[in-house]
Amino acid sequence: MNTQARKFHMNRGAGCLAAFFCLLFFILVVRFLYIQIGKEAYGESLEALAAAKHNQEGSITGVRGKIYDQHGEVLAQDASSYKLIAMLKGDEPIKNKEKTAEKLATVLPLRKEEILNYLNKPLYQVEFGAAANNLTAEQKEQIENMKLQGLRFTEGKTRVYPNGDFASYVIGYAKAEENKKLKGQFGLERSLDKELQAENGKVAYKGDSRGLAYGKEHVVPAKNGNDVYLTLDQRIQSFLEEAMNKAAKQYEPSMLLGIVADPKTGKILAMSSKPSYDPNKRNISYFLNDPVSYAYEPGSTMKIFTLAAAINEGVYNGQAFYQSGRYYVGKIPIRDHNGGYGWGSITFDEGVQRSSNVAFAILAQNSLGFDKYNQYLHKFHLYEKTGIDLPGEGKNTILFDKDIQKITTAFGQGSTVTPIQQIQAATAIANNGKMMKPYVIDKIVEPGTNKVLRQTTPEEVGQPITAESALKVRQLLETVVTSPKGTGTLYKIDGYSVAGKTGTAQIPGKDGKYMSGRENYIFSFLGMAPVEKPELLVYVAIKQPKLKDTEFGATPLSDIFKSVTKNSLQYLQIKPSQVKDVKQLAKRENVRVPDVQGQAMAAAKLLLEKEGLRPIVLGKDKVVSQSSAGRDVLKGDKVFLLGTENKMPNVGGWSIRDVMSLADLLGIQVKVSGSGYVTEQSIAEGTVVQNGAILEVKLVPPIEPQASEEVPPAGT
What we know:
With 716 residues, the chain is of the alpha+beta class. α11 runs parallel beside α13, α12 (348-354) packs across α17 and α13 (357-368) crosses α14 (370-379). The longest helix is centred in the first third of the chain and has 36 residues, at 3-38. The protein has 4 domains: 16-56, no CATH class; 63-200 and 220-230, Penicillin-binding protein 2a (Domain 2) (Alpha-Beta Complex), CATH 3.90.1310.10; 234-585, DD-peptidase/beta-lactamase superfamily (Beta-lactamase, 3-Layer(aba) Sandwich), CATH 3.40.710.10; 590-700, Trypsin Inhibitor V, Chain A, CATH 3.30.10.20. InterPro entries: Beta-lactam/transpept (IPR050515), Beta-lactam/transpept-like (IPR012338), PASTA_dom (IPR005543), PBP_dimer (IPR005311), PBP_dimer_sf (IPR036138), PCN-bd_Tpept (IPR001460).
């Protein structure tokens, strides 16, 4: 090729190369301009990429609000928790699985074999389920000190309840959800979740390629949850928990509950139910708080409100006599709790002490009248919920259509109420007629500022009776505890006066009939102390306790009531010397028996009745001999009058003391079998008694007041 041709080709090649570089430069410029204007490359925002590289952001974790008792003792709070993970493959897997399982079993609530099952799975890593999901810092440290290879921890939040099984049905529990945020699941933790819930914050700043910060930080602070203060008193709650745990262990009931309230304000100082659960473990299977949720037939504690209505209406005459034993509503008999034998003709005061169903049937139907009695059921708010600030309050049923329902309601059968309804109604008795709404949430406080966002103040919800009537009810209920005839003698507390009422309610079975058997009842006691100015109102109930042959339903309850009430009164610095009306009240009940020997039988009987005594006329003509002449006895006690042609009375329902007093006067012998009250006698009523005759009597122990078996269960 000649020189000119070679030069031409070289120039053309150089031109092409120059053109190529010009085109490439043009493309780069266009691309640069495109990126500069569009701020995007390969479908991704360059600004976002730059922000991700230089803008750093961190999360600030908020803390869920704490729950305190009324004195600021922590009942629930947040804490760090740790999840254990075992690496089975990778760079540093577990080497010795046997050793690892053996050592972990000393910390985790798992057996060595269960841990090995996890470690032998064909996975890259394994977790150990709930057993290792919420480990404490102490547990984490224990495991770390074992120097085991292949174990890792991830940190999270958990809710801690320092007292464990302590008012757990009131407080409830919270747990972390999938987003690791704690959320209330039960009890106050759930109903107050919005108030307790925290909001996480964040911090943002600019950083260079090495992560070093420059420029101004932008902080959105976390918002901690609000703190909740309850009316519960940790000391009084502890007294209740300890006493109930002891009873639950010993008697294995299907249900056990207790409430302690301040009747002047309505504050709930303690509340518990068994079986229970530990909110740290969340080993819960029953999701009802029985003291507020469980509506059942209350039994004779309901008589408190019937008595209060009669006293307030001025129709109660405690010294008037009535015939105990049975009372008929049409053809349906209402029986007293000693098999319907009763105690003969007794005063209404004695009927209250003995918890006579017949006495309260008469008060409701004849003294008050059903319409007036129903008005008092409304005044005591027994038709409606209390509105307590706890979730899950149950609805009760007052049966008041038929006459039999109206009468059985008067002594606590057929109709149902919740324990918290009884507490509210009883505040009127303990608080001089003023009925206070029960509440548990004292205040909600903003953390940091201590600003009170919500404060509960005591609320009077009615005044069903006067202060004078309330005092009379308390004084009469005190004799239920102090009188030898009272059903509440087991509830006496040394140094403190107690007013209260026992209750025993039958349990409807699946067949619609009441269950039988001496243990198939709900036994209860509603009491207040001290009597003159009650500081505490206490309700305890136990369902189907396993009792020894020598025990009654009151046995476990009296232990709980006395322990909780006495310890609490002492803790509140209520001195025994401040309550000294027990002896004075006993004196008011005493009466000296007049000597009526030689008087005509009718005149002697009238004189004794005027003194509040119960004459038992055995013979005719003049009084030849009598019992207890010149002695101090309780009002309503029997006085036997001996004349001519003396005849055997009906001793059914009598105590052995009365039988022996009769036998001494008649000059006869007594053979006794059993204990309790007389149910059978060998010498028939009306038989003329000869000196030296033998009277055989059979006694049975009392069952706490029941309606007759002819009365249908609630709802049937």
